[in-house]
Design brief:
Blueprint lengths: L16 H7 L1 H12 L3 H22 L3 H17 L4 H26 L16 H15 L2 H12 L4 H8 L3 H24 L1
Helix pairs in contact: 1-2, 2-3, 3-4, 3-5, 4-5, 5-8, 6-9, 7-9
Amino acid sequence: MTPPLRLLSPTDGVTDAAAAESSGAEARSLILHAARAGDVRAFATLVDMYYARCLRFALHMLSSRADAEEAVQDTFVRVYREQDSFEPWLFRILGNRCRTAGAKERRHAEVMEYGDVPERATTATHDLEFGWREEIDRALRSLPAEQREAFLMRHVEGMSYEDMCTATGAGLSALKMRVKRACDALRLRLTEVDGV
């Protein structure tokens, strides 16, 4: 297992995460340039800026929080080693890490003995909001991995199709079709649940 990523906290105004958020794209560009030049504080700022989004994406791709956190940490380690167009490249690595962890998770599920309780089993006593969250999570997990990934990138992470093409290596029309099929399947699944 990869040890947790521990980087220095940013301390100056140029690499401070709050300043980067308020300054917008220009500040992010400066931070990215500094990180590419080897500035550890700038890279720590990038981690601060993207960690929550990456973890949210990984949690939707994987059912285990520990696997999701490990995928995100490993992603940032790999991004630190070699950097390209940051955001699409970050999500390309994260998607690959999630697919690898998902395959490991499926293999584990296949050998799990009958009667074991899955890590994220739900109870009959959860409230309505929790119930809908769980149903949405189940609906997302029912999608094929490529559709789930495309849906999350487009509608949860707000990525452009151009960045999605870079991140996945898939063509524009293929990605649009994956997103459409994912939306149709989710709409059908959630409509069925709502009607029950």
